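Notebook entry, structure prediction.
Reason for the run: the old model in the group folder had no record of what sequence produced it. Starting over properly, with the input documented here first.
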Amino acid sequence: MIQGGLPSLTCSPLLLSFGRRELRRASRVGIDNMGGERVDADTSISRLRPYQREVAAAVLDSVFGGKGFTFSVEIARQGGKNELSAQLELLLLTLNMGESKNLIKCSPTFKPQAAISMRRLKDRLNDAGFRRIWKSELGYIVRLGDARAVFLSAEETANVVGNTAHLLMEIDESQDVGKEKYSKDFRPMCSTNNTTTVHYGTTWDDSTLLEEVKQANLERERKDGVKRHFRYDWEEVAKYVPDYYAYVESERERLGENHPLFLTQYRLLPIRGGGGFLSEQQRAQMQGEHSRKRHGEPGKVYVAGIDLAGEAEEIEGDYAKSVKPRHDSTVVTIGELDFSSNDDIVKEPVVRIVEHYCFTGVKHTGLYARLADIIRKVWRCRRVAVDATGVGEPVASFLRKSLGPRVTPFKFTQKSKSELGFNLLAAVNAGRLKVYKGDGSEDFCKFWREIEMAKSNYRASQTMNFYVDAAQGHDDFLMSLALTVEAARLYEPKTAKGEERE
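New structure, fully documented this time:
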């Protein structure tokens, strides 16, 4: 223990990563500069998992040895990379609290990502007994004695030049940090002290900063045998956390083994560019055995997705391309919800597509009454998701006023459309989306033509776009289908009192 009332270091799991003599010598440097107090580096059993300790040992060896290595660390989502980072920060601040030195951590955004990291470090400082010793400065710095942890945003517009990393540089969610921003603004912060750098994250595609660092590290490993890249997928994490195994299994059931988010977030396998949105296997899985219906049946629950005719407008600046390709049809898709297959793992219903309506060349004002009648009287839909982008907003507003809170306006943005696509893929992969069997109708043929033509592009920040190339046709049925899945997702069954929650 530290004599004179300063806190013990027994709360830091990383102290076990190095020899007692080296840590005692390093800690005395910091504490002696605070006024002659000394640290006993004896520790309790480490709370960190073996794979976290493996990374920590390599990082600290580089830090204390002045080696200036750059590491890449891929840990499955919720696998403990943030806790590892916070423990590294706690230890380095503690051992250098008598010196004016910085460690720097940057995140793709300040709020919420950098702010969350900062809060976690504060919690660990409190756990270690530093509650009344650490200080917060300028809203982005945590100071312990003279040592500081500086939390910065890696957004393109963030002004971060002028900071110096003495102890450690951390790049959180490196796959979402711009390469130019990192090279121009953050990498030079390490030059004066040959500072060790750690890139944390999960994989996405082969164009990210994390993937670039990873490939460079693997090449260096082949040359000198020094491990610089660490990868721990969900199965490795689950060896030590039984509850985590159950959770990821449920995610696999919900999303599907080959869903882009499951592949990248849990299996740590990169996706390769774009291509077809739905594979032949996925399309086959969508084919149902039920017949098309023309009206609702008593006791059944129906939802609807409405994609409105219109032209694409510029959304979020540079996202004008194919947000909603030009089209001239309004499509309504009706889905029947089947809760009979619900189980303890997947609690969402099967959506059986039972009807399509397609209105071509009809002005929105001429559709108001008809759309309201279809939803209210023909099907008695419980939930409706309607395109409220641009010229669709007045229609969505009318339906909301006419039909009440069962109608949810949906505005297409880069982020919202990406989530819509991921949710559609999840429903297909989990077998929760079935389409009525072929009836030879024009609507049926148009629907499957769009499904076959649909393409996808994967972008930075783990977003995607799905669409039909304007040169090949429209995507009205595709978007209406996705909105129907969204309506099903928003539906909540009746409560015990017999009242549906809106």
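Summary: The mean pLDDT is 86.
The old model has been moved to the deprecated folder.
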